[in-house]
């Protein structure tokens, strides 16, 4: 029942019923905690000595952990039930090991994975582990998302975000295998790291201060604009770089239906940063921004076949982009290698009237999403 409720929560969320999805997820988490699925011995006690069944129980808990972290970021709710109890469950094995039925009893703990940074010998961990770590960092970002955190705390989280990629082993640096398959768990891990980077830095940059209502684009509730600091340009640069990395993920040649539906929100966030940066750059980087937005719009169009929320988002993004990226607005003659470091043009909100679009309370409101077919209905 826990697995069924978890999958249903994801499906109805992406279908355009976020409140129902959130409620179903909390229902699944409550049931899992009451059963003791967060304890180390649960899988062994209830796995009937079947390694793959034990692995299934472990993976279920960690999936609850990850999905709650993502939904909490979308709904701007820093308090999470899966963090309120000890997660003693051993970490998941590689997906290929699980799908091949080659599971084994035992595995690494979260503490062992965390301590790898200072270990003398390199230890191999599954892609799931890096995804779990990424959502942990995302949760740390959410804990200070709407608060005037001490600069040292912000820097500490930024250090974790920057360090994360350095500890991904060489054999996992490339998301695409020799056979052309994308490691979807690592894909999600990179998605979460860049998503978290934007959520940390955009409110502390001039990107959001262009107009406070731009926060409405973040899929659900808005972000609080932080007081201006001397490092606002550095924050803008990091947020913009993260949005570029998200668009790079979108550029991978693979069936979009294999991606998590949560990638939709990541794409929206990337497009908002690109549109804001485009306005602030004052046409100097129009080609780059236009190409990235074009890619995001195309991917959302493909994802809308399966997920209703992508279709609703697509309409909003296209309407905004049409105002910002009109060809006649710029001559677009600047060489591309002169643009990536652009962060500010000194424009104020009064000079970017397209941002008034976000004053519409229905913009990016999940509650206005029209429910569509679940992805598995297409095959029935």
TrEMBL record:
It comes from the Eukaryota. GO terms for biological process: DNA-templated transcription. The keyword Nucleus applies. InterPro entries: XnlR_reg_dom. This is Xylanolytic transcriptional activator regulatory domain-containing protein. It comes from Aureobasidium uvarum. The chain crosses the membrane at residues 261-281, 293-315. One of its GO terms (molecular function) is zinc ion binding. Residues 2-164 form the Xylanolytic transcriptional activator regulatory domain. Pfam families: Fungal_trans (PF04082). The keyword Endoplasmic reticulum does not apply. Keywords: Membrane, Nucleus, Transmembrane, Transmembrane helix.
């Amino acid at each position: 029942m826990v697995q069924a409720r978890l999958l249903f929560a994801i499906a109805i969320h992406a279908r355009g019923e976020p409140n129902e999805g959130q409620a179903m997820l909390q229902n699944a988490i409550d049931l899992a905690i009451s059963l003791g699925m967060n304890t180390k011995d649960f899988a062994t006690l209830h796995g009937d000595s079947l390694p793959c069944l034990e692995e299934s129980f472990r993976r279920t808990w960690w999936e609850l952990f990850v999905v709650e972290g993502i939904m909490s970021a979308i709904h701007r709710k820093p308090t999470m039930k899966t963090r309120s109890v000890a997660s003693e469950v051993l970490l998941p094995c590689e997906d290929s090991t699980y799908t091949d039925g080659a599971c084994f009893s035992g595995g690494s703990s979260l503490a062992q994975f965390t301590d790898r940074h200072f270990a003398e010998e390199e230890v191999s961990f599954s892609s799931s582990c890096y995804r779990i770590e990424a959502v942990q960092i995302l949760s740390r970002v959410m804990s200070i998302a709407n608060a005037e955190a001490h600069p040292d705390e912000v820097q500490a989280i930024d250090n974790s975000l920057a360090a994360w990629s350095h500890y991904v082993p060489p054999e996992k640096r490339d998301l695409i295998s020799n056979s052309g398959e994308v490691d979807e768990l690592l894909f999600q891990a990179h998605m979460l790291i860049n998503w978290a980077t934007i959520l940390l830095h955009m409110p502390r940059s001039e990107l959001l201060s262009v107009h406070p209502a731009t926060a409405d684009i973040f899929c659900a509730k808005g972000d609080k604009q932080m007081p201006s600091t001397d490092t606002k340009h550095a924050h803008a640069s990091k947020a913009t770089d993260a949005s570029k990395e998200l668009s790079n993920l979108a550029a991978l040649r693979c069936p979009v239906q294999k991606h998590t539906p949560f990638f939709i929100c990541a794409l929206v966030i990337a497009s908002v940063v690109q549109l804001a940066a485009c306005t602030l750059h004052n046409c100097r980087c129009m080609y780059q921004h236009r190409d990235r937005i074009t890619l995001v719009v195309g991917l959302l169009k493909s994802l809308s076949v399966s997920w209703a929320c992508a279709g609703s988002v697509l309409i909003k993004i296209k309407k905004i982009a049409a105002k910002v990226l009109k060809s006649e607005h710029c001559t677009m003659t600047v060489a591309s290698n002169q643009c990536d470091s652009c962060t500010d043009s000194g424009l104020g909100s009064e000079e970017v009237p397209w941002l008034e679009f976000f004053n519409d309370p229905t913009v990016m409101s999940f509650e206005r999403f029209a429910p569509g077919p679940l992805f598995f209905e297409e095959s029935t």
